[in-house]
Amino acid sequence: MLDTHRIRVFRSVMASGSIQAAADNLGFTPSAISQQISALQKETGLTLFEREGRGLSPTAAAHSLVKHTNELMGELSKLDAVVTDLREGRSGRLTIGYFASAGAEWMPTLARRLAQEMPNLVLELILNEVPRRGGSPFDLNIVVDVPGAQDPHGSRRVPLATDPYVALLPADHPLADASEITLAQLEGDTWISNDLPQAICSKILAASCEAAGFRPRFAVQAQDHYTAIAFVRAGVGITVIPGLAGHVPPSDPHIRVLPIAPPQPVRHIAAVVRDPGGNTAANRAVELLLDLLR
């Protein structure tokens, strides 16, 4: 079995760029770092660094090894956290997955209320929009409902909210003062995307536009909510965005937020609870979310 301390030192050398830099970053002497690297090379039977001028250059084996230790170091960090929790008397940990707009609107209040009710609970909040190896690690996962989605075995799905999309228009747009708008009225506009093309929220919008008889032409691939709103504010074009992500201060003189008439894109948001029978903290988090959304 590989020595994990040597792995940490090796990763520091790779990230720092030299033995001297790694020594400075870790608080060791360069000699101690060199000894750990030599021991790791003997332990693995691999040549990890080669002389290049006055320094060392990582080999292909070193680049491959560092990639394969990413997951290991993540698991070791989790283990360190568990040990710390046990040592300090904290009895539970709750991991919540969330997407960006839910994070901004709901997670701060949820975290505060959970901390008030369960001061010994360790709360870990992780953005779930980036796929993770090994499936979902979350005790509670806030998701956009996808038809036919397969939840982890033994989990429970709880509907949380319906989130209608809204249209964001520059204040000087001809329809800026309308009380409501249809997607078809925006067909000829310059469209700004606010999510990745294959993301579920983009697919929901695309389906509604198809129902309205057209496909939008995205002249700006912003692919995130904040940048898309900034483009609208600058008068570049319009964007159609989930209401939860489309909050603009009423005092903003540059943007108008309009409801959309049918066929209106809508996303449905749910919470997936792992081990619902025995996960007291996750079940309480869902109750607090439902109370928050009333």
UniProtKB/TrEMBL annotation:
Which UniProt keywords are present, listed alphabetically? Answer: DNA-binding, Transcription, Transcription regulation
Q: Which residues form the HTH lysR-type domain?
A: 2-59
Q: Write down the SUPFAM superfamilies for this protein, in alphabetical order.
A: Periplasmic binding protein-like II, Winged helix' DNA-binding domain
Source superkingdom: Bacteria
Q: Cross-referenced InterPro entries, in alphabetical order?
A: LysR_HTH_N, LysR_subst-bd, WH-like_DNA-bd_sf, WH_DNA-bd_sf
Which family, according to the similarity comment?
Belongs to the LysR transcriptional regulatory family.
Q: What is this protein called?
A: LysR family transcriptional regulator
